[in-house]
Design brief:
alpha/beta, 7 helices, PTS_IIB_sorbose-sp_sf, phosphotransferase system, sugar transport, Fructose Permease, transferase, seven-stranded mixed β-sheet, 161 residues
Length: 161
């Protein structure tokens, strides 16, 4: 069962691995990211970040969806991480579950603007997030579980430019 899908362009790092582990009590992490799945050095580095006793899979988005839809994972608490909102749209289009989507860290890059603390988006990101919102997904913004979640809708109204 998917506990949450997090958008974090750094994918897996200490803050994500440990703070969310205590909040979600997940048993496995699935990273759905084509670039990471195709980079053996990056996969090795990501495996070093996984908490002890937690299974980690780094897969291309389509392979991650196939894995997450496997009935063998129905009784396993899974934390999913994607690098960007477009990958989340691709992923959830292939899933049978409709988990909460968490916007965590999206670093500033060319063509982005500040959407929320530590979350910089561009027009493509907003289109993907708007699509997810229209499809009925609950989207929240927060870096760590101890922060109060901010609903996407309230931030989106401010982002109209």
């Amino acid at each position: 069962m998917i506990q949450m899908i997090r958008v974090d362009d750094r994918l897996l790092h200490g803050q994500v691995a440990y703070s969310w582990k205590s909040a979600l009590n997940y048993q496995a992490i699935v990273i759905a990211c084509d670039e990471a799945a195709d980079d053996n050095v990056r996969k090795m580095a990501l495996k070093l970040c996984a908490p002890d006793g937690v299974k980690l899979a780094v897969r291309r988005v389509e392979e991650a969806a196939e894995m997450l839809n496997n009935p063998k994972l129905d009784n396993l608490k899974v934390f999913v991480i994607c690098a960007n909102p477009s990958d989340v749209v691709r992923l959830v289009g292939m899933l049978k579950e409709k988990p909460v989507i968490n916007l965590g860290g999206m670093q500033k890059r060319e063509g982005t603007f500040n959407f929320a603390k530590a979350v910089f988006v561009n027009d493509q990101d907003l289109e993907a997030l708007d699509q997810l919102h229209t499809e009925g997904f609950q989207i929240e913004v927060r870096q760590v579980p101890s922060y109060q979640p901010v609903p996407y809708e309230s931030l989106r109204k401010k982002a109209d430019r």
